[in-house]
Amino acid sequence: MMDYPLLLRSFLLRAAKYFPKKEILSIYPDEIFRYTYGDYFKRTCQLANALESLGIKRGDRVASLALNNHRHLELYFGVPCMGAVLHTANFRLPTQHLSYILNHAEDKVLFIEEDLVFIVEAIRDQLKTVEHFVILSQSGKLPETTLSPAYSYDEWISEFPEEYDFPEDLNENDPALMCYTSATTGDPKGVVYTHRSIVLHTYAVGVTFGTLESDCALHIVPMFHANAWGLPFICVGGGTKQILPGRETLNMEKICRIIADEKVTVTCGVPTIWLMLYDYLEKGGKYDFSSLRVIASGGSACPLYLMKGLNEKYNFPIRQAYGGTETSPLATAALEKSYMTDLSPDELYSVRNSAGLLALGLDMRIVNAETGKDVRMDGEEMGEIWLKGPWIADEYYKEPERSKLSFVDGWFHTGDVGTMDEEGYVRLVDRTKDLVKSGGEWISSVDLENIIMAHPKVVEAAIIGVPDPKWQEVPFGCIVIQPGETLTAEELQEFLKDKVKASYWIPKEFAFMDALPKTSVMKFDKKGLREMYAEGKLT
Amino acid sequence: MMDYPLLLRSFLLRAAKYFPKKEILSIYPDEIFRYTYGDYFKRTCQLANALESLGIKRGDRVASLALNNHRHLELYFGVPCMGAVLHTANFRLPTQHLSYILNHAEDKVLFIEEDLVFIVEAIRDQLKTVEHFVILSQSGKLPETTLSPAYSYDEWISEFPEEYDFPEDLNENDPALMCYTSATTGDPKGVVYTHRSIVLHTYAVGVTFGTLESDCALHIVPMFHANAWGLPFICVGGGTKQILPGRETLNMEKICRIIADEKVTVTCGVPTIWLMLYDYLEKGGKYDFSSLRVIASGGSACPLYLMKGLNEKYNFPIRQAYGGTETSPLATAALEKSYMTDLSPDELYSVRNSAGLLALGLDMRIVNAETGKDVRMDGEEMGEIWLKGPWIADEYYKEPERSKLSFVDGWFHTGDVGTMDEEGYVRLVDRTKDLVKSGGEWISSVDLENIIMAHPKVVEAAIIGVPDPKWQEVPFGCIVIQPGETLTAEELQEFLKDKVKASYWIPKEFAFMDALPKTSVMKFDKKGLREMYAEGKLT
What we know:
CATH topology of the domain at 8-21 and 35-195 in chain A: Rossmann fold
Number of helices of chain A: 16
Strand order of the largest sheet of chain A: 2-1-11-10-12-13-14-15-16
CATH superfamily of the domain at 8-21 and 35-195 in chain A: ANL, N-terminal domain
Oligomer: homodimer
């Protein structure tokens, strides 16, 4: 068989040649920008030529600080297909982390969304390697900025030819994109995706969800978050219509209207988004969601009531999926098996709300740390999830020491604790570090949070383990209640009584808060909560 | 990213662990044998242990001369996953070709379907490398045979453990299966598939047809024919139910009943089969085919009337696909694009009856031999189809000289002549060697055959170019008419008058025959027809 490298090039050229009429949409507050894969390809060629004119060579890093829109999508293919590496930076990171990752990746060019320029201006002096600033402005004009040299993306690329001979002689193991995890401890850690890993992950996403040319994908997951979970790649490869909602991602009225108007079939996002959507719909929004076929939820556990409510009241059929920055991210997806037609609704939701079944092409172990063996397939025994496969990272970028902690003997130790049931469905119990061990027994903070969040007056709940003289550690609840409602610790304890696995699961203490602190990827910041508790700030 | 090899092992282990309850069926004249992926895995482990006991090592070749059934499917994974190479031999080959390929591949073990043992007994003395004969008998017992040493497959493997530690340290470029083309000139030529090529082809089949666990696949294509077009691999990888119809493949009543009873969703086959099916249905068979989702037709052109008739009268929705032994085989598939909803029925059939669009992951050129450039995307200009990609062969096994003719500068020259329309759909015009060049103008034998086969009294038609003193070459028609009907050359010429592109397309002479000679893969044997013509046997 031919020694033919797996490159993103073949995805891009296929879209350009066979699907030049298919559409890509960027949603702005005041307009919907539409163009075609034909236009997309021309501008991607212009971008590659423009990068070359700056002296960007194979392996050079180029960063984006950008929203989900067509310009960012041009970077997604233009940069790696000309041989450079796109570093998609998370603009929600604390500024010291942001300057850290741009320096650590040694980014030479920085592409910046117009309304994020102020962030970069503030850290300009810390940036050691960036030589050029390119502003992604909707007007196409260069805004006023202290950054220099700075160009307006549209003006800049328009000077260059609409053709580019994307190289075929890259190695499939060459880096293509990179992304930093929002580490809860220490500096962010970089993960480098190769052409090979992305191509294989894309195929796996395709066969998992049956994604086809006839789909229409809405990218709710930020494009700096594990490559928007790979959805842009399967779309370009398949010639699939895609919609990039930019700042409007959090505008639920707009999102609902787009799903209905454009007949969106596929989307994915974190539970925080689904929660906002649910709240919006509960206030009376009515939309036709019948086109939706696959909605993947990941990043953190999707509360069961939310999954049920969205599905049953609004025909919005969520399935969970599991993975992280280190896993490209698809590791497992909670699709029910075809013979599960006689399951009760509750059993079916239990399947759909699990982390799911292993994706085709990966290898997984769930290892009981005490026995060192794989857990039983009984849905009870807990262990750490280990993963192996062609789209699983084997190191953190330029971090040999920290890499050794997570990548051991060919396995990625995820730090997630889970179980596997007899059908092979994984259920996440907790992060190893978030598990609460009380009187020698494990308590899953995630399970407990889900139970509490099912209380009608509760909006958000986070459980942390706090020191206890008698039980070593006990669960502590951090609760956000619905505006205008009241709720006491006693009422919550009463509510939990017949719902938890054992009475020691019920927190003795709660803090009622206006909002829970979140990490830059919208997860509950439990490290922050533990620090607040230690400082006596949670009462 | 991890340096993790693409191996068939991960498909097999996934089916065993996550889909042990899903079914595999073998159809026999007098029974339907059913077992599960759980059973399948145990027997595949037994097979691997049994092969090891014979001293079979990595890279050794093991041949099958077998029908489509569960034992053959056990060989499909057991042999390559333990490191050896499965050579699926075509039992329809002339015996001198059969002994040639078994010797050429240096097969050490030969697995033989019970009712094909007589073929091997007849060529036993010519076989130079086979050391063991394993008979695949439905009874499980060893039949009487002159072959020695011979074992009954079921008895033999039953002695071995139901567990096997399939190696993880194979190289993804190691050979996994091999298959010989039925060369029309000279000895058959071998193509070796690697673990990598099969894994990638499988993903591509999956994303092309959206194949999922919920599908039910019927394997009509012989398993010795380019790995049954890869369908067994996507089924095992996806945990998809599969049905192997053995000798009953040609029993149309049985095939129709299975499709309806088992709710088959996916199948593929050559037009000869669809023709038999159509004839059978035309005699009054009524079946519920509503479960069918994808039916791929390939190997040779599917006549348009057949595609239309099956779809419109019987709800049997065929799409064409294109490829060959050297291409694993999927190269293109004729799925319409989602925006083609306003095409007229004729336009839509023209798309579905094309060879289709390039599969995701390949590179293709259609090259005009005279200009050396890619043909225009106008559906008119003809050129030879060249292919490149990770599941395209780069040589014929141990044939350096003949390889040079087909594999040139990194491209596989298919020998097929085609066009590409403005939407990117390929249409096959002919084999380079079957094109008729009359008075300096090209005539597509395939197009002409399709037009003739649309005549209600014609069953089969093959066009060959024959020498002509004035026009260098003219088309000659070999025709099989419906039993009991009569048809003259003049009537056919009259019929063709307003249907062909130009009057010189109309054959001056026809031979009316009882049947057309076919190759071992059921294509019209045009080389044989040309020889018959030269010998004066066609009148």
